[in-house]
Amino acid sequence: MVAGGVPVRAARKNAPPREDVLVAAMATIAERGLEGLTMAGLGREVGMSSGHLLYYFRSKDELLLQTLEWSEAELGGERRALLARRGLVSERLQAYVDLYVPTRARDPHWTLWLEVWNRSQNAGPQERDRQAAIEGAWHRDLVALLAEGISRGEFRPVDADRAATRIRALLDGFSIQLAVGLPTLDRPAILTHVREFLTETLSPRS
């Protein structure tokens, strides 16, 4: 069996580590946007032919999804570290929000997320399950954070799962506006809106 005219065994031996390809893909998105990410160009970056890349990733859709999964794993480690901090739950909730919201227009991680979401219309059930797993990790961490705040009396006794669903919907809506570069709100304004919403929704009633 051959990949791109080269025996598969040789392709495996000469290929860079999978993570190197994903790092290069993310760097390309950050520097040139999704329009700058092509299989041929990425292959040149890592010393592989586009045929070799297609052998390993099967399609550009799969490459994008694996790149997102890798990026989310990096963010997941950062998220778990901040949620494990001691101190007020409200401060950790603000740190969660800060990590969730894009840093700027065309934020590479959110640019990639939006593209994967768009392509998910034609994705198979396994790919959809993998996307749901990413979403689920963010949701479970937020539910746990809210539940801790409720148990400590920092937050009013709301349904943590329902509240997390609504908070993430709010964060997604604002994040998409920022990521695509709509001129309506900048990041500081978005964080202020979210902070006010959290206060109104979670602060204990006097």
Radius of gyration: 20 Å
Taking the sheet with the most strands, its summary is: 2 strands, antiparallel
Based on helices, strands and strand pairing, what is the structural class? mainly alpha
Widest sheet, order of strands: 1-2
User: Can you give the helix content as a percent range?
Assistant: over 70%
Strand tally: 2
Provide the residue-averaged pLDDT.
88
- DSSP strand content: under 5%
SSE sequence, one letter per element: EEHHHHHHHHHH
Q: How far from one another are the termini? A: 71 Å
Number of helices: 10
Global geometry = elongated
Uncertain stretches: 1-13
Name its key features:
72% helix; single chain; mainly alpha; 2% strand; 206 residues
How would you sum up this structure, described in words?
The chain is 72% helix and 2% strand. The chain is an all-alpha fold. It has a two-stranded antiparallel sheet with strand order 1-2. Strand 1 and strand 2 form a beta hairpin. The termini are far apart.
